[in-house]
Structure formats: structure tokens, C-alpha cells
């Protein structure tokens, strides 16, 4: 391997690491606020790319129908669960938010899909469809289990993952798609030719990470999320609406996943099940950082991306094994660092 090949591998590692950083940060955010290990994070990546692909093909993506169904189901569940505390104003807000808006979006997509409105419009429509799914999935699958143990929430997350995976196959089929790049051009950088789409990925990742930092440090809602992550019960006692912070965390995770899929769609062929493996590598980065630190997660994601890239050159058949084997020394080290605790109750 010479210096030129190393530069190409480093470029691929940085691009992959940027995506893994976004997904890892989203996983840490959701876990910190809700204690949910959000296994379906990768589905939003695949659905982001595939929804854009469906719109580019002039067809109505299945995600538009799913949003309407999820909104209707969430409204019905909330009516049943809180029927004794319902007021006319609350029902009206719920009907508008959970039923009228999703069905209006569905009608708009059905009308606009055949009109070839351009990539920028398709990206916006994709985000409008996918971001509200995060809070709706939280309300349907996780909010009723908010006080359950982490293992129960993890099992629920696996169930949601398999449900979304099956729906992805129904919506988009088994065929893979590659989207139109934002800028279809390349430019020289030393001995390399760098695609403009690769630069987009790095720039958008840095902007999103900076925006998340500003959100958590400067905004009242961001500080509420941080407080919920530190002490859920204490946040509830001081008046922070824990349910609302959980929904916000899932909305941010859905947005990050959708943006990630939109960014990588032009560079690689995305299938309905591609998101799981991509999200799993973001999960590796989050585990290395202890599911607690956003900066460490970003750095660990860069490490995962570089390791994957160079492993593909030296041992392409084992690159996934090498990446996931990175967890073994980390978990062993954390096991010894945490010490041992006697689970038996002292009498």
C-alpha cells in the first residue's frame, strides 16, 4: 500500500465516520433521555434515501401512508388511554396534529409526486414525512413502557426494528436504489479526486454537530433534555414534561437518521435493510463512548470509519468482523473498570 492508496482509504474512512458520528450521537441522545437503545435508528437512514428515490421516480413513497396510519393510531391510543381526562380543546388539538396534518401531507404527496419538482423539494418532503415518525413511534411503542427496565425497552426496540424492516420491504421492494447527488462533480485534492457529495457529507455533519451543541448549551429545550438525561425523576419534579422531552429526542433522532440517508444515498446503493448495518456501526461508536459522551462518540465513530476502510483493503472478507470485534476489548476494559458489585441484599 502506497501513500496514494492510504489517502483514498482515509477519505473513505472520514466519510463513513461522519455518518457513523451522526447516528452514534442520535443513539446516545435517545438513550440518555429515554433509556431506549434505539435499534431502529438505521431504518430512518434507509428510508431517507429510499423515500427520495421513490419521489424521484414519480411514485408515492410508502412512508407517506405510514405517517398517516401512525398518526391515526397514536390519536386513538391516546383517546383510549386518557378518555377520562379529555377536553374538547385537547381532542381538537390532537385531531389536527395527529390526523389532519398527516393526511393532508399524504394528499399533498399524492398530488405532487408525479410532477418532478426537483431534488431540493424531494429532500424537504422526505424530512417532513420522516421526522414526525420519531415522536409517533415513541408514543406508540415506548411511552407506555417509560418506567420499564432497560431490557424491556430494548426488547420493544427490537420489535419496532423488525416491524419497520418488514414495512421497508413492502414499501420499497428488494431492489436497491441510488439517488441523484446534490452536485454531480469532482475536484482534485492532491493525488485524489474528491466527489462534491463527499464534501457535502463532511460539511453537513460538522454543521449538525455544531447545531446540536448550540441546541443543548443555549436553548431552554436543550437544557431540559440534558436535565432529563441526568435525572429523569428530578426533571419531572421540577416541572419538565418528561414525555415531551422523549418525543423531542425521538424527533431529533429521526431527523438525523433521515439526513444521513439523504447524504449517503448518492454514494452507495441503499436497500430496504441497509440501514441496520449502518446504524449498528454507529452503535459501536456509541458503546465505545459509554453511551454517554457526544464528543467521544464522534471521535469513536471516526475510528470505526477508518478501521472499516483500512480493513476493507487488507481483509475485505473480514472487515465487518474486525469492526465489531473492536467492542470486545472495550467491553472487557469497562467491565474491569466498573468493578464488581454483589447483587445479594445485605441483611
Q: Average pLDDT, to the nearest integer? A: 84
User: What does the overall shape look like?
Assistant: globular
**Number of domain modules:** 1
Q: Give me the side-by-side strand order of the main sheet.
A: 1-2
Number of strands: 2
Instruction: Kindly state the percentage of residues in helix.
Output: over 70%
Number of DSSP helices?
15
Termini separation (Å)?
Answer: 64 Å
Following the backbone from N to C, one meets helices and strands in this order, namely HHHHHHHEEHHHHHHHH
Q: Using only CA atoms, what is the Rg? A: 21 Å
Main pleated sheet = 2 strands, antiparallel
Task: Name the structural class.
Answer: mainly alpha
Question: Beta fraction of the residues?
Answer: under 5%
The residue ranges in which pLDDT falls below 50 over 5 or more consecutive positions are: 342-347
Textual characterization of the structure:
This protein is mainly α and 347 residues long. It has one domain. It is built from 15 helices and 2 strands. It has helices at residues 3-34, 41-56, 62-81, 88-112, 119-130, 133-142, 150-172, 196-218, 220-230, 232-237, 242-264, 274-288, 294-314, 319-325, 327-338, and strands spanning 186-189, 192-195. It has a two-stranded antiparallel sheet with strand order 1-2. Helix 6 crosses helix 11 (242-264). The longest helix is centred in the N-terminal third of the chain and has 32 residues, at 3-34. It is globular. The N and C termini lie far apart (64 Å).
Amino acid at each position: 500500500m502506497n501513500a496514494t492508496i492510504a489517502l483514498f482509504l482515509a477519505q473513505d474512512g472520514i466519510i463513513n465516520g461522519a455518518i457513523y458520528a451522526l447516528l452514534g450521537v442520535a443513539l446516545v441522545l435517545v438513550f440518555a433521555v429515554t433509556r431506549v437503545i434505539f435499534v431502529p435508528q438505521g431504518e430512518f437512514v434507509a428510508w431517507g434515501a429510499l423515500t427520495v428515490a421513490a419521489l424521484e421516480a414519480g411514485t408515492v413513497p410508502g412512508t407517506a401512508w405510514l405517517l398517516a396510519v401512525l398518526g391515526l393510531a397514536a390519536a386513538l391510543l391516546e383517546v383510549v388511554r386518557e378518555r377520562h381526562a379529555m377536553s374538547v380543546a385537547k381532542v381538537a388539538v390532537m385531531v389536527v396534529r395527529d390526523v389532519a396534518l398527516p393526511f393532508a401531507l399524504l394528499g399533498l404527496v399524492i398530488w405532487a409526486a408525479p410532477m418532478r419538482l426537483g431534488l431540493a423539494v424531494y429532500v424537504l418532503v422526505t424530512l417532513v414525512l420522516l421526522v414526525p415518525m420519531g415522536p409517533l413511534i415513541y408514543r406508540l411503542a415506548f411511552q407506555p413502557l417509560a418506567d420499564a427496565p432497560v431490557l424491556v425497552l430494548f426488547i420493544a426496540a427490537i420489535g419496532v426494528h423488525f416491524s419497520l424492516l418488514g414495512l421497508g420491504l413492502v414499501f420499497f421492494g428488494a431492489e436497491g436504489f441510488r439517488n441523484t447527488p446534490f452536485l454531480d462533480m469532482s475536484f482534485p485534492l492532491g493525488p485524489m479526486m474528491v466527489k462534491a457529495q463527499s464534501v457535502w457529507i463532511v460539511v453537513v455533519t460538522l454543521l449538525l454537530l455544531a447545531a446540536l451543541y448550540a441546541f443543548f448549551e443555549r436553548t431552554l429545550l436543550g437544557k431540559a433534555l440534558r436535565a432529563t438525561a441526568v435525572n429523569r425523576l428530578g426533571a419531572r419534579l421540577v416541572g419538565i414534561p418528561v414525555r415531551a422531552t422523549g418525543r423531542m429526542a425521538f424527533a431529533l433522532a429521526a431527523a438525523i437518521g433521515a439526513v444521513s440517508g439523504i447524504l449517503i444515498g448518492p454514494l452507495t446503493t441503499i436497500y430496504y435493510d441497509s440501514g441496520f448495518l449502518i446504524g449498528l456501526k454507529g452503535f459501536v461508536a456509541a458503546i465505545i463512548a459509554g453511551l454517554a459522551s457526544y464528543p467521544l462518540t464522534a471521535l469513536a465513530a471516526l475510528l470505526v470509519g477508518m478501521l472499516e476502510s483500512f480493513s476493507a483493503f487488507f481483509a475485505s472478507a473480514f472487515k465487518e468482523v474486525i469492526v465489531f470485534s473492536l467492542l470486545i476489548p472495550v467491553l472487557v476494559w469497562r467491565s474491569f473498570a466498573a468493578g464488581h458489585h454483589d447483587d445479594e441484599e445485605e441483611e
